[in-house]
Amino acid sequence: MSDAQDVFQEGIIALHQKAQDSTFLLTCPLGALLFQICRNKWFSQLRKKNRETEVRNAEAERYESEGIVQNTLEQIEEEEIRQRKLDQAFGQLSELCQQLLQLLASGMASAEVAEQLGMNNANTVYRRKNACAERWRNLFNAQTA
After folding, report:
1. Which of 136, 138, 105, 104 has its CA nearest to residue 119?
2. Contact 97/109 with Cβ under 8 angstroms?
3. Which fold has domain 78-145?
4. Would you say 71 and 63 are in contact if contact means Cβ atoms under 8 Å apart?
5. Going by C-beta distance under 8 Å and a sequence separation of 6 or more, which residues neighbour residue 114?
6. Residue ranges of the alpha helices (H) in the chain?
7. Alpha carbon 50 to chain centroid, angstroms
8. 74-78 contacts: CB < 8 A, separation 24 or more?
9. Domain residue spans in the chain?
10. Which pLDDT score, from 0 to 100, does residue 99 have?
11. Greatest CA separation for the chain
12. Burial class (CB in 10 A: 0-12, 13-18, 19+), 95
């Protein structure tokens, strides 16, 4: 049920984006167009899941052939290094970004976060969260490059 809702929402978004195009011309009923968009998105999602299953199966075979213990130790070391780099990048964010991301990660509602950090509303929180997350990603990627 959740997947269907997600696909429908993505279909509505795609339809809206298409309608914003000045060259877009509706030549069929709106419902038929939305149905086709959602159908294509659904098939795309199924293909993606199938590919992910194939990758998981290939990885499982690789673990069996290479030895699970060796891979597990290497993965733990890599994850520790990755976590250290994430923490370092997080430390480079502004105090406001750090507080915002920590409050949202703790499960606090965006309206409460907005009130606690003195922001106008939840929309401001979401915009700011996205900007902070993008900054964090860029800092992390700069360290790993």
Report:
1. 104
2. no
3. Arc Repressor Mutant, subunit A (1.10.10)
4. yes
5. 120, 121, 122, 124, 125
6. 2-20, 30-66, 68-91, 95-105, 110-117, 122-144
7. 19
8. none
9. 1-66, 78-145
10. 92
11. 59
12. exposed
40 token code pair: 């294509």
Q: What is the pLDDT of residues 81-138, one digit of tens each?
A: 888 988 899 999 999 999 999 998 999 888 999 999 999 988 999 999 999 999 999 9
Question: What tokens appear for 142 in the block?
Answer: 């700069």
Cα–Cα distance, 33 to 41 (Å, whole number): 12
For tokens 């902070």, the residue is: 132
Q: For position 68, what pLDDT does the model report?
A: 57
For residue 108 the two structure tokens come to 């606090």
Q: Which residue has the tokens 């075979």?
A: 61
Amino acid at 75: Q
